From TrEMBL:
<dbReference type="Pfam" id="PF00581">
    <property type="entry name" value="Rhodanese"/>
</dbReference>
<dbReference type="InterPro" id="IPR036873">
    <property type="entry name" value="Rhodanese-like_dom_sf"/>
</dbReference>
<protein>
    <recommendedName>
        <fullName>Rhodanese domain-containing protein</fullName>
    </recommendedName>
</protein>
<feature type="domain" description="Rhodanese">
    <location>
        <begin position="18"/>
        <end position="116"/>
    </location>
</feature>
<dbReference type="InterPro" id="IPR001763">
    <property type="entry name" value="Rhodanese-like_dom"/>
</dbReference>
Length: 117
């Protein structure tokens, strides 16, 4: 279980991904993402979270090829390599009204160390 309503654990993330509904946002740099990513995630660098999560629904879908989550969606997760940038992105999203946004604090490092698939 994650330590707060702002975080999601590895096992919870695996279950979340298995459902196939929801959005996982990788906030690492392009170079980091090019070396590996969580399947199904989209890439929004941490410095662009504010502007990209503020796009209207059609602009978001056009840019990322996925439906933008609603403000009250419980299916929005951010992650980075080890948790810090994911936490920053989660707080930014929450400040924009995505009140249930969560951070996968284990990050890509934990995902890859545990053989996440």
């Amino acid at each position: 279980m994650a330590s707060s309503d702002k975080e999601i654990s590895y096992s919870d993330l695996k279950a979340f991904l298995a459902k196939g509904s929801g959005l996982v946002v990788d906030v690492r740099s392009k170079d980091e993402v090019d070396r590996g990513r969580i399947p199904g995630s989209i890439h929004i660098p941490v410095e662009n979270v504010g502007s990209d999560m503020s796009l209207d629904t059609s602009e978001f879908q056009s840019k990322f090829g996925v439906v933008k989550p609603s403000l009250d969606s419980s299916e929005l997760v951010f992650h980075c390599q080890m948790g810090k940038r994911g936490a920053v992105a989660t707080e930014k999203a929450r400040s924009l009204g995505f009140k249930n946004a969560r951070n996968y604090a284990g990050g890509y490092k934990e995902w890859s160390d545990k053989g996440g698939k």
